[in-house]
Amino acid sequence: MGAIITLSLLGILVLYLGLYKAKNALLPVSILGLLIAFGFEAYYWNVEALPLYKGMVIFDHFSLSFSMICIALTILILLLSKEYFKAISDSIAEYYTLILFSLTGALIVCAYHNFAMLFIGLEIMSVALYILAGIRRTDKVSNEASLKYFLMGAFSTGFLLFGITLLYGSTGSFDLAVIKQYIIDNPTGVSSMFYGGILLLLVGLCFKVGAAPFHFWTPDVYDGSPILITTFMSTVVKIASFAGFLKLFSTVLVPLNEFWTPVLLTVVIITLFVGNVTALMQTSYKRMLAYSSISHAGYMLFAILSIGPNSASGILIYSAAYGLASIISFGALILVKRQAGSDSFESFNGLGKKNPWLAFTITISMLSLAGIPLTAGFIGKFMMFSNVMNDYHTVLLILAAINAAVGIYYYLRVVVHMYFMTSNEELKIAMPLNFQIVFVLCVILTIILGIYPDALILSAL
């Protein structure tokens, strides 16, 4: 709980720093506060995990692991923000404050033990992002992204709340332990209202993670938002949402998996094809990443579809790999777009000659997203595929392999443009020190996790 309180107070402090024109202190104070929050999470690692505050939250190894990944990725994203927000807005304190509040909601989602806290966490996380998506008030595309995100978010919240209501009506409680005990005590007498609640919860959570056919908001919101905000949404927000998704289905709804597995299996197949096929057709690098994030949601759903002892560790590795690669990919887009003024694939032409280090960094991220061996992305996909294989979902495994091959094609398309196509623009892209630090850290961690994934697979998961 120390991390949640720290981040809440930090957001208010940063807002006051902006009010008193202490703009140069915003980034260092934010990073310091995040490190303190990370320290609180590490401290609770050896503390006995019990539901706290009348069973509202629990800080077990599962929630602490995902919370620490969310905090670490936020630190990397904020390191990229130096000078970025100044270029698009005079009121930069609001960016940091809203990101910190959204992260606070993400930590609550990771640690919830009661449906009330799940709802509160999701809303704190989402409301801040509704504002961040449209914070460029003079940009119509950004305004459109904010409006779409708000409308679809409110729509998904309705499904989520209705599902929670039906489960409450069946069990008389919002507490996960009580709901789980209800299922155990009534193996053949579960209320039909309870089954309806499961379906509505599934719809609401699929909206939050951007799974098809509930993905309509994803490409336009990712494309219209500022690049760093898109980075935060596609990494921290998605990871926290999957942590909440996995916790509910792995700890409570496993006994009823014969009911919800066919539904989720259909969602996974649709998600894989929609994400990969549409990403293949894009001419914009940013929209390609937006659609590919849908396909990654499909792969991450494997851990929920085939729940087992390796589900948590598998989705943890996949989350870390996807987060690191996405930070590199979107960070590189910031640099390229500054010079080229466009996010098309042609903007990357000749980058291998103009800036070999930046091209190498992007290549590592593309290989990781594609799941090529010796990268973290390969280990993540391998663990997801292993989960499916253990449950004998043979057809899904074949379809997933086909989609993985499609993914390799459009990710390597970026590499082809960098190394095998020439550019009329000969100016070398400048890489600020903060970008160099973040890229080096992400590349090293991507390779380490690809070679030695046990460094992150925690014994308790």
Automatic annotation (TrEMBL):
<feature type="transmembrane region" description="Helical">
    <location>
        <begin position="392"/>
        <end position="412"/>
    </location>
</feature>
<protein>
    <recommendedName>
        <fullName>NADH-quinone oxidoreductase subunit N</fullName>
        <ecNumber>7.1.1.-</ecNumber>
    </recommendedName>
</protein>
<keyword id="KW-0520">NAD</keyword>
<keyword id="KW-0874">Quinone</keyword>
<keyword id="KW-1278">Translocase</keyword>
<dbReference type="InterPro" id="IPR001750">
    <property type="entry name" value="ND/Mrp_TM"/>
</dbReference>
<dbReference type="GO" id="GO:0048038">
    <property type="term" value="F:quinone binding"/>
</dbReference>
<feature type="transmembrane region" description="Helical">
    <location>
        <begin position="92"/>
        <end position="109"/>
    </location>
</feature>
<dbReference type="InterPro" id="IPR010096">
    <property type="entry name" value="NADH-Q_OxRdtase_suN/2"/>
</dbReference>
<feature type="transmembrane region" description="Helical">
    <location>
        <begin position="259"/>
        <end position="281"/>
    </location>
</feature>
<feature type="transmembrane region" description="Helical">
    <location>
        <begin position="194"/>
        <end position="216"/>
    </location>
</feature>
<dbReference type="GO" id="GO:0008137">
    <property type="term" value="F:NADH dehydrogenase (ubiquinone) activity"/>
</dbReference>
<dbReference type="GO" id="GO:0012505">
    <property type="term" value="C:endomembrane system"/>
</dbReference>
<feature type="domain" description="NADH:quinone oxidoreductase/Mrp antiporter transmembrane">
    <location>
        <begin position="114"/>
        <end position="403"/>
    </location>
</feature>
<comment type="subunit">
    <text>NDH-1 is composed of 14 different subunits. Subunits NuoA, H, J, K, L, M, N constitute the membrane sector of the complex.</text>
</comment>
<keyword id="KW-0472">Membrane</keyword>
<keyword id="KW-0813">Transport</keyword>
<feature type="transmembrane region" description="Helical">
    <location>
        <begin position="147"/>
        <end position="168"/>
    </location>
</feature>
<feature type="transmembrane region" description="Helical">
    <location>
        <begin position="115"/>
        <end position="135"/>
    </location>
</feature>
<keyword id="KW-0812">Transmembrane</keyword>
<comment type="function">
    <text>NDH-1 shuttles electrons from NADH, via FMN and iron-sulfur (Fe-S) centers, to quinones in the respiratory chain. The immediate electron acceptor for the enzyme in this species is believed to be a menaquinone. Couples the redox reaction to proton translocation (for every two electrons transferred, four hydrogen ions are translocated across the cytoplasmic membrane), and thus conserves the redox energy in a proton gradient.</text>
</comment>
<feature type="transmembrane region" description="Helical">
    <location>
        <begin position="433"/>
        <end position="452"/>
    </location>
</feature>
<comment type="similarity">
    <text>Belongs to the complex I subunit 2 family.</text>
</comment>
<feature type="transmembrane region" description="Helical">
    <location>
        <begin position="288"/>
        <end position="309"/>
    </location>
</feature>
<feature type="transmembrane region" description="Helical">
    <location>
        <begin position="57"/>
        <end position="80"/>
    </location>
</feature>
<dbReference type="GO" id="GO:0042773">
    <property type="term" value="P:ATP synthesis coupled electron transport"/>
</dbReference>
<keyword id="KW-1003">Cell membrane</keyword>
<keyword id="KW-1133">Transmembrane helix</keyword>
<dbReference type="Pfam" id="PF00361">
    <property type="entry name" value="Proton_antipo_M"/>
</dbReference>
<feature type="transmembrane region" description="Helical">
    <location>
        <begin position="228"/>
        <end position="253"/>
    </location>
</feature>
<dbReference type="GO" id="GO:0005886">
    <property type="term" value="C:plasma membrane"/>
</dbReference>
<feature type="transmembrane region" description="Helical">
    <location>
        <begin position="25"/>
        <end position="45"/>
    </location>
</feature>
<feature type="transmembrane region" description="Helical">
    <location>
        <begin position="357"/>
        <end position="380"/>
    </location>
</feature>
<feature type="transmembrane region" description="Helical">
    <location>
        <begin position="315"/>
        <end position="336"/>
    </location>
</feature>
<dbReference type="GO" id="GO:0050136">
    <property type="term" value="F:NADH dehydrogenase (quinone) (non-electrogenic) activity"/>
</dbReference>
